[in-house]
Amino acid sequence: MRALVISGGGSKGAFAGGVAQYLTQDLGREYNMFLGTSTGSLLVPHLAVGDIGKLYNIFTNVQQHDIFSVSPFVQRKKGDREYVSIDFINSLWQFIRMKRTFGESKSLKRNIRRNFTKQEYDRIKATKEDVVVTVSNLSMNRVEYKSIKDFDYEAFCNWIWISCNYIPFMSLAKVDGYEYADGGLGCVIPIREAIERGATEVDAIVLESETMSRQKVLGKNPFSLMLSLFGHLLDQVEKNDIEIGKLAAKNRSVKLNLYYTPTSLTENSLIFSKNLMVKWWAQGYEYAKYKHENLR
Description:
By secondary structure, the chain is of the alpha/beta class. The protein has helices at residues 13-26, 39-49, 52-61, 64-67, 88-96, 106-115, 118-127, 153-163, 191-196, 222-252, 274-293; strands at residues 2-6, 33-37, 73-78, 81-86, 130-137, 142-147, 173-175, 178-182, 201-209, 255-261.
């Protein structure tokens, strides 16, 4: 049984889309199982349906207002360079309203239902072994994996949304009395879970470079420094997930193929720029093509 696993990574999900396009269209790989965390959770339902064209249009046209109903960031341009700063007014307004997060992602929740239809949900359940998304149960301090087989359309869309909620910058969700957030807070790339569910070959797309090639620029104020700190912590979780996945693959004689980004794509993956995401999709495709052509 072959599984496709995609890590978290925000806007860098466009790179994973390019890799997946090459694997499915050019190599003709068919997957029985799809697992994702955060942005990976947005990708895997569409990849399970097999509509790469639709997925490309979604990921390369998404904008901040498609994600955030209250954005904690301001996107600016200086020459050809796009960069971000903190929206202190929105963040202050969240404090005044006694909210626990700097931003809200209700727009993303609506966008998921708009782009992933009930007909596509039904097709996946009829033709694929499983689609699984990762969430963090903060109330119980544990990672949970939500399968499309266990939930109706509305509930599964809600779990996809919850898997993407990178707090404290996005919404905190409550289900059945428990509070949930981004699956990446506990498991950035669920390789071991794919193996536990019966995968005998795993293609895992890791939305981070294998080695850090340049020095990171830390935030210049407490807010942006916190964003840098969260990124550092998630990098450590991701490395741990990969090592655990490698060990599980070795113990179960599972073939594990890892696809990293060749460089560090961005310092802030919560910023969605059409120009960058079009570029990253093409880079993902070319990287996967180069990797396989050089393995022959």
